[in-house]
Hints:
By secondary structure, the chain is α/β, with parallel strands linked by helices. It folds into 2 domains: 4-171, VC0802-like (2-Layer Sandwich), CATH 3.30.2130.30; 174-400, Vaccinia Virus protein VP39 (Rossmann fold, 3-Layer(aba) Sandwich), CATH 3.40.50. Helix content is 32%, strand content 25%. The chain is elongated and about 70 Å long. The model has no long low-confidence stretch (mean pLDDT 94). It binds S-adenosylmethionine. S-adenosylmethionine binds at residues 190-191, 193, 220-221, 223-227, 242-244, 247, 282-284, 298, 300-301, 324.
Amino acid sequence: MSQSVLVLGRQPALGIAEAESLFGADKITPIGSQFVLLDARIQDVPFSRLGGSTRVAKLLTFLPYTDWEKIEKYLAEELPKHTCCLPEGKIRLGLSVYNLSVNIRRLNATGLTLKKAVKADGRSVRVVPNKEHELNTAQVIHNQLTGPTGMELLLIRDGERTVLAQTTAVQDIEAYAARDQARPARDARVGMLPPKLAQIIINLSTGNQPVSMDTEILDPFCGTGVVLQEADLMGFRVEGSDLEERMIDYSHDNLVWLSQKPESGLHGLNPDQIMCQLSVGDATTFNWKPVPNFIACETYLGQPFSTEPNPEKLKQVMSDVDTIHRKFLQNVARQTESGFRMCIAVPAWFTKSGVRHLKTLDSLEELGYNRVSFVHSDTRDLIYHRENQVVGRELVILIRK
Ligand SMILES: C[S@@+](CC[C@H](N)C(=O)[O-])C[C@H]1O[C@@H](n2cnc3c(N)ncnc32)[C@H](O)[C@@H]1O
């Protein structure tokens, strides 16, 4: 039975695949393209590790109608029964409405109706005014709507019914930015992997494997170490390798920086101990010892392009990158056993004539892998891409045959 709701991020297919990977296909029900109903108690949703969801909410009820007047009437009757139980102090209330037929003026009028209803019950309340149908993350945080005397109600149209849920957490944008921008070693040349995307890659690789320091995640193209950082914060043991010594130094400096934070699994380790988890090595030939439990990485994406290159140039870059990937997958297949799982973010090129995929993806079976597909997300949609970017990152989940 559904008990929680996830509000998905900019590329919902990634968030859906991530949720399916962690909870299982039978535990999730997408609503439209932007939400997921989750058969998990709110306290069992590890929200801070979900890169693909922006909010998590506790499912309160399904209303068997979508008519705004009826919804307002229901809320005015029911809300005081809940607000009366909140701790003392001024209550702050917000409404976020999705796909229901109500304009902003009417929505703000409903806010005032609810304010009166709660006040009539002896509680003082401030309603956050809606400029849009949805309050933004900053408004939820600033007004402490997930705090003890706060309440953000989500009203989501699902066919002929309305899902009513209460937000319990929103993505901590500042914490993500701090992890990204405050770390000492950064390199624009290798491309900045957003921490949220790193989380999605890790979640797609580990699936529902419980978090433990006995489970090791390897990033064989670790660069500045974003995947390693995020996997460490989730509670996994991490190992990284990269062709360039300079990158290993960067990863090292970033992990040492992270280890100074109490929430890091590396906390208390000295810089030499951290160095032991990092190696200079070519992913097409390196022997990882011991063999990790999972691989999660953004691979080598080839030359970055700000505009589409000419066909000859693109052909050459695609061919070079293809060779590295083919050899890398052969090398991993040599060292791993049947069932070994990994998620790799590989380049996909967005050209005027369409998306060009890595050629290696056509011969995965031959290389010894089955590609994982998802019940609720189309494999073709699992490409992280921003408008005007030439090189996107295609998320490929593989299981060793
Ligand atoms: C796109 S970057 C990965 C960035 C990384 N995710 C991060 O957080 O910084 C690709 C990395 O692959 C490394 N690389 C390229 N070819 C390699 C190879 N054959 N074996 C191992 N690493 C390689 C590069 O040095 C670079 O650091």
